[in-house]
Amino acid sequence: MTWKLLFTSSIGKKFTMGLTGLFLISFLIVHCSINAMIFFNDGGETFNHWGHFMGANLIVRTMEIGLFLFLLLHIVQGLMLWSQNNKARPVKYIVKDDNNSSKWYSRSMGLLGTLILIFLVLHLYHFWAPSRFGGMAGIRPLEETTLSTYNNQEVHNLYAEMLLVFQNNLLIVLIYIFGVFSLCWHLIHGFQSAFQTFGINHKRYTPIIKTAGLAYSVIICLLFASMPVAIYLHWIQ
Question: Could you give all domains of the chain from N- to C-terminal order, each with its CATH number?
């Protein structure tokens, strides 16, 4: 398969979607593990230690560029596939039993993906931009409470940033929960689809992959959703 077909053909799009999907699934494990360190409830010491390591390590920063490229490719290819599928069937069937043909979330990947994109932009605005550029990427001043000392160096206090974002803003907490809910359904379908794309589709292995995908999706998303809730309810100080 040529590079052109890889990005333009239907099979090529599914291949790149599967490849980038597996990469993002792996990234979520690391991201969720580090974020979950707020549950040590030690004033953010452990969380900030690893958060600073991820932000300052040259290898991690280089991989971050790859992550953004893979994420962008995943979004673009996903929207192209969704549009292509809709154009392939411009006239809907008069009678269609969706429950017997596919799950609702597998038919709604475009919508769920768009909702996740909105959530992702908000998430980057709240946390990635301040940690990389200071303040809120020049939009919001850097409060003194969002600075901490690490190895005799003044760095961004992501833990304090989480408290600022979630502690007294129910609307933001609800938006994050809804975004994580969308992510969960997206992952449930995407996990199995990624393996199926590479030919791992057998009556012996598919049920195991489905179960693993369901467990992964629920655990990861419950952890992500529990963080803003715990901060808002002041379980974490």
Answer: 10-88+104-232 (1.20.1300)
Query: Tokens 């419950």 belong to which residue?
Result: 222
The beta-strand segments (E) located in 44-190 are: 147-150, 153-156
**DSSP H/E element including 110:** helix 109-123
- Distance of alpha carbon 65 from alpha carbon 63, whole angstroms: 5
Whether residue 105 contacts residue 189, with contact meaning beta carbons closer than 8 Å, is answered with yes
SS3 at position 150? strand
Apex CA 141: angle with CA 138 and CA 142, to 5°? 105
Whether residue 222 contacts residue 155, with contact meaning beta carbons closer than 8 Å, is answered with: no
Amino acid at 219: I
**Which two tokens mark 109?**
């990947």
Tokens of 226: 């529990």
Task: Quick: pLDDT tens for 182-222.
Answer: 889 888 887 877 777 777 777 788 888 889 989 999 999 99
| Distance in angstroms (rounded) separating the CA atoms of residues 142 and 43 | 19
Which pair of structure tokens corresponds to residue 70?
Answer: 């893979």
Backbone angles phi and psi of 83, in degrees to 5: -65, -40
Residue 9 pLDDT:
65
d(CA 154, CA 152): 7
The tally of CA atoms less than 13 A away on the side-chain side of residue 216 is 21
Cross-strand bridge partners of residue 154: 149
Query: Helix 10-35 and helix 170-197: axis angle, to 10°?
Result: 130
Q: How buried is residue 183: exposed, middle or buried, by Cβ count under 10 Å (0-12/13-18/19+)?
A: buried
Residues 190 and 17: their CA atoms lie apart, in Å, by 9
- Model pTM? 0.75
